[in-house]
Amino acid sequence: GAASASCGHDAELDLGTTPAGLLPKALRDNLAVAREVIRTYFDELREQCQQEVRSFESQGRKAPRDKVNRWTAHLNPERMKQCAADILAALRRHPDCRMRPLTRAHLRSLIVLQHTLAEDTMDVYLPEAQRRHSDTFEGFLTSDSVNSQLIKDAHRSEWTIDGRAFTMQGSEPGPSSPTCDRKQVIKDFQQGLVTHLEQFLMDFCRRQQLSDMRSR
Fold it and tell me: What is the DSSP letter of 8?
């Protein structure tokens, strides 16, 4: 079962095809530390998944499809071995990794970011039944390009898109203003931000001559 699977704790992680002696010393040292960090991080992911599996089983509850898909992905030893190789390949190309020794904390942040982005990007290309999240997508210029949670929380952050700043600071109605006024201001802000973001991304895709699938 999923709960009993292992991610191959002792499996050797591939550093790539370049002989270690031909790598810059800083990169060689960083990759050596990164291998240890990846093992620790993947062990944490495996344990988290197994705990979730046990929790659902002990409560007799059926797990949501996205959770089951996530467990299946992160408890597959061969898949996680490939994920590790992909992370190391990305680190090999990272300028900082090639030029100077990085702390374990810095490497971990790069590793977690790379793995998270890779997983989220891969999810877009999977059939809906195999996806590891339950996010929904919408848009104003498009129908399903922007994460609904991003739109919902847009007014709580400051944004810069192609040099243009978007912020609610200074434009939100005061506490004495009617609730409907505040809701309308937030709605207008969300639409303006998301529309500009969609247009920026569509222009980028056109310049790069990306296919419809790549654009999505």
Answer: -
